[in-house]
What we know:
Layout: H1 2-6, H2 34-48, E1 51-58, E2 61-67, E3 77-78, H3 83-96, H4 120-124, H5 127-131, H6 149-155, H7 170-184, H8 188-200, E4 206-207, E5 221-223, H9 225-236, E6 240-241, E7 244-245, H10 249-256, E8 279-280, E9 286-290, E10 294-299, E11 304-310, H11 315-326, H12 339-350, E12 372-374, E13 381-389, E14 394-401, E15 404-411, E16 416-419, E17 429-438, E18 441-447, E19 454-462, E20 465-472, E21 481-488, H13 489-492
Antiparallel strand pairs: 1-2, 1-11, 3-5, 4-5, 6-7, 8-9, 9-10, 10-11, 12-13, 12-21, 13-14, 14-15, 16-17, 17-18, 18-19, 19-20, 20-21
Helix pairs in contact: 2-11, 2-12, 3-7
Amino acid sequence: MKIYFAIALIVLNANFCHAADLPRSTPEEQGVSSAGILSFIEATDKDIDSLNSFMMLRHGKVVAEGWWSPYHPQAPHSLYSLSKSFTSTAVGLAISEGKLSVDDPVIKFFPEETPSEPSNNLKSMRVSDLLRMATGQQTEPPRTSDVAWVKTFLAHPVPFKPGTHFLYNTSATYMQSAIVQKVTGTTVLDYLKPRLFEPLGIENPTWEVSPQGISTGGYGLSVRTEDIAKFGQLYLQKGVWQGKQLVPKEWIEAATARQVSNGSNPASDWDQGYGYQFWRCRHGAYRGDGAFGQYCIVLPEQDAVIAITSGLKDMQSVMNLVWDKLLPAIKSSPLAANLESQTKLSQTLKALTLRPQVGSGSPQKEILGKTFVFASNDHKLESLILEQDDKEKSVAVVTRFDGIDYRTTCRNGQWTMGKSGWSTLREQPIASSGAWTTDDTYTARICFYETPFVVTASFKFVGNEVHYLAKTNVGFGPKNEFQLVGTSSVNSQK
């Protein structure tokens, strides 16, 4: 998460527009209660406050959609492990083209990376074991920059007989991606473009690659919320899209069936069984999902699809609301028009927003325009200046990272769209807001709206020092914050 902290205060301008893809309908026309959807939105907004976007399809039509500003319809979103379901689809397509089989031994594809004396369990590991997260490994093989990921995977111990032991294993998904690239000569991203993305109208998908130039497979794909919904609708339609069979029906059925047991808790949507890179759910549903709440939920019995992106810690909480609020809203036949509920739902969806930073403090005049410098640190933050523009009712946070100055404009209670531009990173679209939360503390919120991450950075001014604290809403590590202390340059020169 260091990169998100480091660029939390860098902004350029960004523009976007909306273009409709899937057909739209009112909820009641498709047998869904507007009041029920509204209840779900209000509950998530009040109790969770972490959703980024939501889209619901019934009978192939969008009946509700909303983005929590600054997230917006045209922004791609990091899918994290929801990427796995797309990788599985690539495997299924390659199988249908005769390039491999689920029964192929994994080491068959990598003779040069296989240990000189592979164990019997490694030799018996098949493609199907990769797909259902049953490789026989007790721990997930690491993925580092100094050793090829395939070689590391094949060198990792396999103490259990493949097929008998479930272990959620992102490295196993990477191996699927590597196999597809081995047999097709192209990355999973490029392989899927003419076969899946282009027919579905998914434009400009991006996918991270390993140091060896292989799509990461288990994560790294970014597409729009509507693209997630299209993918779910394709699976709901057993691989048929606009009259054409894009993905074999047999693969859809196998991939979404219970291929392996992964628990026994009836109240958990993570204990209902696992398919080929798809999770089984309660209520006869299945889904692809990713860290911090990226969901593609398919409900075959209700002929419905739900796409959600979010930045939350408790992923089960959203699933619970889906079953408690949305599932009862789905009826077996069209409903009478309910103009009042439809209007309220529409207004609520259009007004969704992540809470921007607000405050009512009054800054000390001597703080403004003063330069604070930081000792050498891992985040490469060198200096900070706050400049207030009373005419624009904004504060410019001027930072120097690694020798380059950046200027971030923040407004009280309002998101300002932009892009980061830290020289060592790919440009990161962001939105910022900020306010004096007390007379001696300025707080900025930076939303990386193509990801789940929102960074809150506070600057507390104490004498000739500034105490800088940055926190992120979610993260993989045990500590999602850092602190630095800067000293005014005037004082440091004395």
